[in-house]
Design a protein that fits this description.
With 323 residues, the protein is mainly beta. 5% of the residues lie in helices and 54% in strands.
């Protein structure tokens, strides 16, 4: 297994932004967007952020609740954002945030939207139990064709990393429900709104750390998983697993920050690099003193020569939403 050391890239000036950064996505021109899910342990709102990697300038837009994800679109400054229990359209030029979906988990208490993945058929998104205790969180398909919200599962705890790819007339979905410490492969029937489990791809139950965010390599041969470690460790880890047999191919180590939340493979400075978010969530002052880099963004080299770009919804699709 190859080991690669990551370096700190960005240290948010505001401690609130360090609490729970997640969901980095590429914006082009050396910029990424990311969400701060909540600005502290008792906070009930977070923000959308856009970081210029060269200058280190970070623009921050408050959101009307806690965001789980934000995906850029072909319309400059317009994002599809999962906030609390609705998918919303956010226009950074005006600050307007408009609900465009039905409520997720409408018959359940104590959950909010968490991780998601966009694709030409819409968005697959999950929720999380805020107490991280009950199997009551949902996994959903928001289908852009008719803007319907279809519940695929109702028994997850903390729905996290997701990867999707087309497979004939259907879609293959790889999904993490963090407490299970497994990555499960499903076949998604888009028209029927149905999910069939195929197999457990990665069984990580022997680990004392938890899989969180996840992306795929451009060839879909491997999954790159960020791990959240609530215990003490000299570094946090992101690991690359071969889907065929679960073999760990390489590990990126993030010094001084054990709670790694999300990875992103992106082209930056002429090469494909790994960017990762980390979190200061639930850390005491004493623990933060031991891990002062918690909440920073990190970057590291990779051996890859190309990336798989995220799907961006078109202006035509955006014009249909909510009408």
């Amino acid at each position: 297994m190859q080991t690669i050391l990551a370096r700190q890239l960005f240290d948010p000036a505001d401690d609130g932004l360090k609490y729970l950064p997640e969901g980095p996505t590429c914006c082009g021109d050396g910029r990424i967007s990311w969400v701060a899910i909540q600005h502290g342990a008792e906070a009930d709102a977070g923000s959308l952020n856009e970081l210029d990697l060269e200058s280190g300038e970070n623009r921050c837009w408050p959101l009307p609740g806690r965001p789980g994800f934000a995906f850029g679109t072909e319309q400059a400054g317009v994002y599809l954002v999962g906030v609390e229990r609705h998918l919303q359209l956010f226009d950074s030029s005006t600050g307007e945030c408009r609900k465009v979906s039905d409520e997720v988990d409408a018959d359940v208490e104590g959950t909010i939207i968490n991780d998601a993945v966009p694709f030409p058929g819409g968005i697959v998104l999950g929720t999380k139990d805020l107490k991280f205790a009950e199997k009551k969180a949902g996994l959903y398909l928001w289908r852009i064709e008719d803007q319907s919200l279809v519940r695929l599962r109702d028994d997850q705890v903390c729905s996290n990393g997701k990867v999707i790819r087309q497979d004939g007339d259907a879609w293959l979905l790889w999904d993490i429900d963090t407490p299970t410490k497994t990555v499960v492969e499903y076949r998604l029937d888009l028209k029927r709104g149905r999910l069939d489990e195929i197999r457990v791809v990665l069984d990580l139950t022997d680990l004392d750390i938890f899989p969180d965010g996840m992306v795929a390599t451009a060839d879909y041969d491997s999954l790159v998983v960020a791990f959240y470690n609530p215990g003490d460790a000299p570094y946090g880890v992101v690991r690359q697993f071969r889907i065929e047999d679960g073999i760990v191919q390489r590990e990126w180590q993030l010094p001084g920050t054990p709670q790694v939340t999300c990875p992103l493979l992106m082209e930056y400075q002429g090469q494909v690099q790994l960017l990762a978010t980390t979190a200061a969530e639930n850390m005491s002052e004493q623990r933060l003193a031991s891990y002062p880099r918690s909440g920073c963004l990190f970057i590291a080299p990779t051996p890859f020569d190309k990336v798989r770009p995220d799907y961006r919804f078109t202006v035509k699709e955006l014009n249909r939403i909510g009408h």
